[in-house]
Amino acid sequence: MENKLEAKNVNVFYGEFQALNNINMKFKENAVTALIGPSGCGKSTFLRLFNRMNDYVDSFRMEGEILVDGNGIYTKDVLVDELRKGIGMVFQKPNPFPKSIFENVAYGLKIQGIKNKAVLKNKVRKALQQAALWDEVKNDLDKSALELSGGQQQRVCIARALAVEPSIILMDEPTSALDPIATAKVEELIHELKKDYTIIIVTHNMQQASRISDYTAFFYMGDLIEHNKTDIIFTNPEHERTQNYITGRFG
Amino acid sequence: MTRGQINRLKDKAFAYFGVFCTLIGLVILAFFIGNIFYDGITRIDWDFLTNLPSRKAEKAGILTAWAGSIWIVIFTFLIVVPLGVAAGIYLEEYGEKSKLSELLEVNISNLAGVPSVIYGLLGLEIFGRLFGMGNSILAGSATLALLVLPIVIVATREALKAVPPSIRAASYGLGATKWQTVWHQVLPASFGGILTGVILAISRAVGETAPLIVIGALAYVPFTPSSPMDEFTVLPIQIFNWISRPQHEFSINAAAAIIVLLLITFVMNGIAVYFRNKWQKKINW
Ligand SMILES: Nc1ncnc2c1ncn2[C@@H]1O[C@H](COP(=O)(O)OP(=O)(O)OP(=O)(O)O)[C@@H](O)[C@H]1O
Ligand SMILES: [Mg+2]
Question: How buried is B28 (Cβ within 10 angstroms: 0-12 exposed, 13-18 middle, 19+ buried)?
Fold first, then answer.
């Protein structure tokens, strides 16, 4: 398996504050990697490096390199919007557009210039099915997405990211707003998607990390403490900090 | 008295004080409107609305004045909306934060406080003379557009600011460009707020007198405009003209014209509120 993503000597600053310290990490293609660690350790910051979403934070500054398919994405000639078409993102809080369910899921396709109604319909349905939402909303696709429950909204957001068929998916605690049944559906989905997608998922749920991920990375106060196969992290971690964290003794 | 009783008393006292303050404004307004209606309502009839101006008070009508006002409103709207909204979008979404942009920001707010006569002089010089528009509807509209531009810019920025950043993030995250994000997500979501600002601006413009007098709008225009290059008068100027005459009949005419002006403003606001509510029902964060 190839390295799909790579971070090389990455330092991140918000103004004076250093949020990530010299991170080096490689992500295998078609695998799920879980990022774990206590609140504020830099997981979201790290995740957002890969689709350059930190660019909108005024005080953000980065040193080092982020490679996608071997190419640096923080060089001048990179077209950020093109980059993002291949990298889907699901955010920590559900953030559907104030539009219909259909429009939400179709948006990514429409901005790529796809206008054909039949094609749109098909892709929207497929994405909603993948996100385990189709059966609940198939009769009111014209309803505003804001009228859905929080968990349903999050699945709209997942469907929205899947509809454009990216090759990488970044998920920031995608199930923190979901009930156990919806969570199970999303986990099942992640398992399915692994065949074709490279997935990075931030989670505070240790069981979830151990259930769905192939690799796990443990962050602590801006440092990458340990990165290994998930079963090794959870059964035989190298560092005591990791051990303490996954067994719930701190964090 | 216990502390709780004192606090409840304070609460009550403030409530009464608030009612009093609100009433002062309402009573004055009611008195003013009542007075105007008492003087003018019987003067309003079909002839009054459709007659040309005249030196005889009982034959004079406001056709040219309200027609002029409508022309002015339409062209002011056409000029100020694209300019103001585009400037607001630029400042809020595109412009980088810098000392220069801060300076610009303060000045835009300050512009809203510049006396309207000054805008009239500016319009006279630039639109009237330099661009050769003379004392036409276009010159008047351009001047008024300038006058209310800050209102539209500020309202647009406020409305854009109210759109949650997470919506922009979602759009960018899918690979949308800045323009796609603004056009497809941010603008529709802020439409209600922008519309409110535009209506406020137009309501202000429709009541303005001084700058139009400065650029040379006439009190006596014996024809209704048929193109934006025509000379014109507007309701406030007609009112001003009538008020300043000694004969009582003319002040009755003025009162009647004020009622018409109030109605126009009222209807415009009503339409705006209707659209805004309709729009905002769809968007509820
Ligand atoms: N926009 C910002 N401006 C300044 N500092 C920030 C910003 N975003 C994050 N930080 C800081 O960077 C550090 C890492 O934040 P980050 O959001 O990446 O943490 P996290 O691991 O995702 O936490 P959580 O599990 O609570 O989501 C925190 O100390 C935070 O205060
Ligand atoms: Mg986070």
Answer: exposed
Query: In Å, how far are A129, B152, B181, B192, B225 from B188, measured between CA atoms?
Result: 28, 16, 10, 8, 35
Does A157 contact B170 at a Cβ distance shorter than 8 Å?
yes
Q: Pick the residue from chain B with its C-alpha nearest to A161.
A: B174
Q: What is the per-residue pLDDT across A125-155, written as a single tens digit (0 to 9) for each? A: 999 998 889 999 999 999 999 999 888 999 9
Q: Are A203 and A173 in contact (CB under 8 A)?
A: yes
Task: Write down the pTM of the prediction.
Answer: 0.83
**Residue A77 CB neighbour total at 10 angstroms:** 6
What is the residue type of B189? Answer: A
A84 vs B167, B172, B284: nearest CB: B172
Distance CA A225, CA A241 (A): 8
Ligand 1 center to A94 CA (angstroms):
18
Beta carbons of A49 and A5 less than 8 angstroms apart = no
Q: Where are the alpha helices (DSSP H) in chain A?
A: 43-49, 80-85, 101-110, 117-130, 134-137, 150-163, 180-193, 206-212, 230-235, 240-246
ipTM for the predicted complex comes to 0.91
The answer to whether A85 contacts B175, with C-beta atoms less than 8 Å apart, is yes
- Cα–Cα distance between B160 and B168 in angstroms, integer? 11
Q: Does A146 touch chain B (CB under 8 A)?
A: yes
Cβ contact A85:A112 at 8 Å: yes
How does pLDDT run across B95-138, given as a tens digit for each residue? Answer: 877 888 888 888 888 888 889 999 999 999 999 999 988 889 99
Distance CA B157, CA B145 (A): 18
Instruction: Give distance in angstroms: CA of B56 to centre of ligand 2.
Output: 77
Place of tokens 């079909």: B46
